[in-house]
Specification:
single chain, about 400 residues, alpha/beta, Aminopeptidase, Alpha-Beta Plaits, 2 domains, 5-stranded mixed sheet
Amino acid sequence: MRSLTFEKSHLPLVGIILLIAASLVYLGLQLRTNPVDEAIKSDRILDILVILEEKGKPVSTQLFFYYPATGKGAVLDLPGDLGLIIKSVNKVDRIDSVYQAGRPQAYVSELSRLLATEIPLWLVFDEKGLGRVCDLLEGVEIFLPEAVDSKGPPRVLLPSGATTLDGDKLVQYAGWSPPDEDDAEASSRRQRLYQSLVRKIGGRSDWITRADVFPTFRDCVGTNLGSEGLRKFVREIARIDIDHLVMQRVTGTRRAVDRNILLFPHYDGDLVRDIVKQTLNALASSTGALADKIYTVEILNGTPLKGLANRTAEIFQSFGYDVVSVGNADREDYPRTEILYRSVGREAAAGLGEVIQCGNVAPDPGATPRSDADFTIILGSDFNGRYVNGNR
C-alpha cells in the first residue's frame, strides 16, 4: 500500500487556504453579530441592557430602549435587590444573586422573564473598564444636586453642581450610595450617571470609532455584540436625543426575606411589564409620553379612599411622568375618573390615559386652570387602584 507523503512545497498553498478560511469565518461572524444594522434596516427598536459592575456584582443595571428611526429612547432602572422567585434555584431571592462577574447570561435571562420581553443585547463595564473608558473620553461630566462626602472606605469627596470626573472618581461615584437614600433617589442617581456616560460617548463617537482608538474602547467593554455591531452602536449613540430620554423605574413594596430587605414589584410585576409594553409602543408612535417631553401631572383623589392619589402617583412616576402635585379633589363622589389636559394635545392625554386604561379625557374647562401641570387626573370610584374598571 502506498504511503501518503506531504511535500514542503505545499506549505505556502496550505497557508493561503487557511488564511482565506479564517477571513471568511471572521467576516461571517461579523455579519451574523451585527444586530444594530439589522434593527435599523428592519425599523425595529433596540433593547440593550447596560450593566456597571463592581466587585463582581451589578451596581447599576439600565435597560435601554432605542428607536433608530427617531433617535428617541427610554431607560428603565432595574435595581439588583428586586425580589422574585429565581427560576434556576426555585427560591425567593434578590435578582442579582444569579449574577456572575463578566457572564451576565443568567441574570439577563431572569430579567427577561420578569419583564416578559426578550433582552437580546448587553454591555458590561467592570471597574477597570469603566475607569479606562472615562479616561479615554477625557472625563465624564455629571451634575450632582448635593456635594458628596462619604467617609468610605474608599472616601468619596465630590462638589455639588456640574463637575467632570476622571476614571477613578467615576468608579467611586458609581459604587457609592448614601445611607438614607430612598428608592426614587437611588434610581435617579444611577440614571444620571448613565445619561452622562451616554452623552459623552455620543459626543465623541467619531473619535472612539477611529481605527486607532476603537480597539482600546472595545477591550473595555464586555458584550455579546460583535466588534462591528459595537462600532455601529457607538455611532448610533451620537444620534440619541439624550435630553429627552424618558427615565423609568420599578416601584414596589419592601419586605424582609432571610434577613434581606428586597423590593417586590407592584402587582406581582404586572406594572413593570406594562411599562415595557407601553414604552415599546410609545417609542414607535408620534404621540404619548415619549413623543417630545416629560409631561407634568397633578393627581387628585375624588373618592373617600385614603392614600389613593399617592399610590397612583407611584404608577405614573414608574412610567416616567413628573408628578408635581398630589392631593384631594373638591369632593369625594366623582363617579368617573377624569383626565383634564391643558397646553398639550388630546393625543398626548390619550397616551397618559393608557397607563390606567382611562379614556375619559377632555380639555380643562376652567377659565382659570387648577394647576400649571400639563394634566390633572381626578380619580373616581371607577378606579380600582390600577385600572379604570371595565376598561381592562
